[in-house]
Amino acid sequence: MDKVKPDVAIVVYNDHGLNFSLDMVPTFTIGAAPTYDNEDEGWGLKTMPPVPGDPELSWHIIEQLVKNEFDIAIAQEMKVDHGLIVPIQVIWPDADTWPIQVVPVAVNTVQHPIPSAKRCFDLGKVIGDAVRSYPEDKKVVVFGTGGMSHQLQGQRSGFINKKFDLDFMAKMVDQPEELTKLTTTDLIRDAGSEGVELIMWLTMRAALGKKVKHLHSNYHAPISNTGSGVVLLEPAD
User: Fold this and answer.
1) Does the first or last residue of the chain, that is N or C, have fewer Cβ atoms within 10 Å of its Cβ?
2) Which of 160, 142, 159, 157 is nearest to 202 (CA)?
3) In the Cβ-directed half-sphere of 73, how many Cα atoms lie within 13 Å?
């Protein structure tokens, strides 16, 4: 990131009850606020400052999504939690002020029915087209967040499927359409009940275009009961 120096990060993540309760969960929500307050820190951790938004780019993406028949929720005020904060904090660990603006894209992975892998992939296609058609010259990165295989409750609590995770990461590069065939049932069976968060990776992948360069990847299964992977991709078309 020091080399690319992006202006904006589109962060695809899931809200953990901060904005939406189980009584009201939009399938897709796009933030269009000038700033986003972090209200998910605590436990002795450093409180992070509000994250600056890019309302103009947000509205451009929103308009393109609606034009392409995505019925989304629009949030002109929005709190953000660890789903958004942790990824950008990992990338910029020493920042006292955020070096980028963000566009939050919140995907429902909590209240069933959740969107399909294909629907999330199609969402990413429109987001990518919107960014490429944006008239301002800005460098944009897209983060697809969410744990890989994991399950936090029930008889399979602690479930991790390394083979599935590694296969998913490999297909992300040049066979992402194969991953869109996975149903919610497939994902829960092979990646655990919380492994469905992988649909957010597909939104990121589709936004990058058909062909990508694979720059880096790594996988680790820590004691935290979540398969953890990172894939760094760059558009090639």
Assistant:
1) C
2) 142
3) 16
What are the structural domains of the chain?
Answer: 8-235 (3.40.830.10)
Catalytic: which of 16, 82, 214, 216? 82
Angle (CA) 191 194 196, round 5°: 65
150 counts as catalytic: yes
Least confident of 34-48, 85-99, 112-126, 155-169: 34-48
Summarize pLDDT for 114-141 with one digit per residue, the tens: 999 999 999 999 999 999 999 999 999 9
CA angle in degrees (0–180, nearest 5) for 47-104-143: 90
| Residue type for position 232 | L
**DSSP notation for 59-76:** HHHHHHHHHTT---EEES
Segment of 70-74, 84-88, 95-99, 156-160 carrying the highest mean pLDDT: 70-74
Tell me if residue 60 is catalytic.
no
Tokens coding 45: 């951790």
Residue 49 confidence (pLDDT)? 86
SS (H, E, C) 72-129: CEEECCCEECHHHHHHHHHHCCCCCCCCCEEEEEEECCCCCCCCCHHHHHHHHHHHHH
User: Is the confidence at residue 37, as pLDDT, over 70?
Assistant: yes
DSSP string, 180-230: TT--HHHHHHHH-TTGGGGHHHHHHHHHT-S-EEEEEEEEE--TTSS-EEE
For 3, the token pair is 């080399």
Check: CB of residue 118 under 8 Å from CB of residue 178: no
In the block, residue with structure tokens 């040049």: 174
Which residue among 150, 214, 216, 220 is the active-site one?
150
